Amino acid sequence: MSAAVEIVAAPPREAPWIARLLRAPGGAIGAALILLLLFSALFGDALVPYSPTRMAAGRPLLAPSLAHLFGTDEFGRDEFSRVLAGARLTLMVGLVAVGLSFSAGLIVAMLAVLARGWRGAAVMRLMDVLFSFTDTLIALACVAVLGASLQNAVLAVGIAAIPFYARTAHAAALVERGKPYCEAAAVAGAGPLRLALRHLLPNIMPVMIVVATMGVSTAILATAALSFLGLGAQPPMPEWGLMLAGARSYMERAPWLMLFPGLAIALTVLGFNLLGDALRDAIDPGRRGR
Amino acid sequence: MSGAPLLALDGLSIAGGHGQILVEDVGFAINPGETLAVVGESGSGKTLTALSLLGLLPERLRVTGGAARFGGQDLLRLDDSALQHVRGAAIGMVFQEPMSALNPVVTIGTQMTEALRIHRGLGRAAAAAAAIRALDLVHLRDPAGLMRRYPHQLSGGMRQRVMIAGAMVLEPALLIADEPTTALDVTVQMQILRLLAEMKARFGTAILLITHDMGVVAECADRVVVLRQGRMQETGPVGAIFHAPRAAYTRTLLAAVPRSDAGTTPPAVRSAAAGAAGTGTPPVLAIERVSRSFRAGGLFRRKHHVAVDGVSLAIAAGETLALVGESGSGKTTLGRAVLGLEEIDAGRILLDGTDLRTTRGAARQALRRHVQIVFQDPYASLDPRMKVGDAIAEPLTLLGLLRGAAARARARALLQEVGLPADFADRYPHQLSGGQRQRVAIARAIGIGPRLLVADEPTSSLDVSVQAHVLDLMATLQARLGLACLFISHDLAIVRRVAHRVAVMRAGRVVETGPVDAVLDRPQDPYTRALIAAVPVPDPNRARCRAGGLVAPTGIDRGVADAAGTGRGVVPCGAADPAVR
């Protein structure tokens, strides 16, 4: 009938989020840095001029040159090869740690939202208690119990970050839970599980993905810190944090040994942070804005 | 009018970030002491026009042409610091949402004195004294005490009074009021409109009133500008606009305004409803002495807030019962209780004779499918990440009625049933307009064949012309499906249009109930009478606050704590009975 009056053409399709992401300068730089890291992680093996663990590839503590782009360390290992090989470790560390804390945190948050009342409150208060210890302290405790190795350091960093993801997801889910569309779903007969999986989860995902992207850099830093303290990766692993620790003794004679792994960590962290920032801008306004 | 106009706007054009034209060639003049209403629906550019006068346009938008002569200056060409002197001092502004326009963490006093100290360079004490005088001027009780309060401790009406006091404190020549009463209850709206008229009479302030409500226009405006999609449709004195509109759009706008004072009643079924009640067939919904109270307040100050207090109602098949009342009257709580979204403390809710509370599990689920809801805000009631088709199909699959392709096909058929193209099924809610979304919400609600539809202010967030379409749709579907409908609304004009019977709620109790005509034309309860008297009538001849002049200050909402509020905002209650006029 007269309904035709208000039927208007669909609003112009907004550019897909990936295009908006790459159009922002921060997003493009971040994506480029992450791609570089990804490339090194995938093809580093084939590209390295020397095995990253081969001692005496050159004389010890050589300054950067054409033969050894980043110089050599105290055992004569090629620093360039080691930094390149570290990319894969670093990427694995970031993804595994965040994957662990992300999924565990999300599950905890969903359970807390669904079990309204004192059970939900109890779960979140427990998270608050964990949250009040610094990540490094929890990670240290985990490593102390499990023993020092890269795997355990990743596990520890992952566990330490669970409260953060749980709280973020919980807050986001509570906001969504209060919106009329959730009540409409409940009136339509949706049980708690369906509400969580079909309605809450997709709606908090944009926020969570952004948080997780930034979280990768935090996890990388934390693991590198544990390795630096000798609680993570063990020699002769080409792990950036561990390399920094080793280089500390030669800071005056061979400063490049600190420079390159440090730069690699900084650029990786920067990459994930820029990407996360741009991702938030790209995802947020279109879908969630009115 | 004698002399030059106070503000002469000429050929205003505004373009958006991508060069799209949002406002084109809008011009009008406001004389001193005159109220000019700029009317239009959402997207008409009425708010942009006002913002451009104050240099407050959003960042991406640009003024591409025109001039606004005000006191020998062109407002559109002034730089920021010059505008700063005009804003507040010469032109005051009152916004729609008084809660968000006031800073929630700063006391009223600080906010009131800020402008005085900036524009007048007054000292602390002098500014405070002037602010207190201004608060007194807008008939707020205990202005000195109010200075120390925070916005959340005041009711909506009080906040809007504070806003007006803040705008008037510098005695501007022009007051821009952007939908000043849209967020308020009708009785409060009438008080605010009267207050504006009083300010105008007292100080000769000209008012630029931006509104979508033709009733408000008729009550207050001297002259009217009608905007549509950024273009002027018509301008003229208020009488001419209402009685001899020239533009087709103005006529559409006027025709779409539901009137609460007279008009058509919904078709048929009234007798059927009465008959059903007589023959002993159980009504679709029977609410028996239902009560619900909330514990509010902090750790140490527990308060008992009774939201619904022993309410009994019944609705027969095919009948629409309107539940009217102001915010905080408990009408929404009652609606939610019927849906099972809210527990009740006492009483029974019977659906087709079965008590909701005694059923469990599968039986309750089966009862559930007989009650569906259409929410107020179509932007929030559809899952933004679910395609429209999936949203409509969801109740069907959840209740095991249809699944897979069959459910999707039914969803497409339902879309057509509510007047939308079937291929909308593949769109996301943000790709639809407000009216379209509300149609989707209706399709979703009727898909499983409910017996009762709870509609919670289903049209209050829609433009008037869209409102009419949605109400028509609901009436058509109701007649065809024999739905019983609990229609929750604060808008008596809409109630008159859709409902067969009406129940007036106040402070959790039903104060009056009966057939629509009887209640609205011959109200028995004083509160109902006050409510009806407060509705703006879209007829300038009957308007009560346009000429300004001698309008006695009502002081009705002085000191009334916001009953719907957090329960913390305890404000001493004085002569706070809205029923007593």
Give the tags:
heterodimer, A: 290 residues, mainly alpha, MetI-like fold, 0% strand, elongated, B: 581 residues, alpha/beta, Rossmann fold, 3 domains, six-stranded mixed sheet, 36% helix, disordered C terminus
Q: Can you put this structure into words, describing what you see?
A:
The complex is a heterodimer of chains A (290) and B (581). Chain A is mostly helical and 290 residues long. Helix content of chain A is 72%, strand content 0%. The radius of gyration of chain A is 23 Å and the shape is elongated. The model of chain A is unreliable at 1-12 and 285-290 (pLDDT under 50). Chain B contains 21 helices and 20 strands. In chain B, a hairpin with a 2-residue loop joins strand 14 and strand 15. In chain B, helix 7 packs parallel to helix 8, helix 8 packs across helix 21 and helix 16 (404-417) crosses helix 17. Chain B has a six-stranded mixed sheet, sandwiched between helices. In chain B, strands 16-17-18-13-19-20 form a six-stranded mixed sheet, with helices on both faces. Chain B is globular and about 75 Å long. Chains A and B meet through helix 7, helix 8 and helix 10 of A and strand 16, helix 15, helix 17 and helix 18 of B.
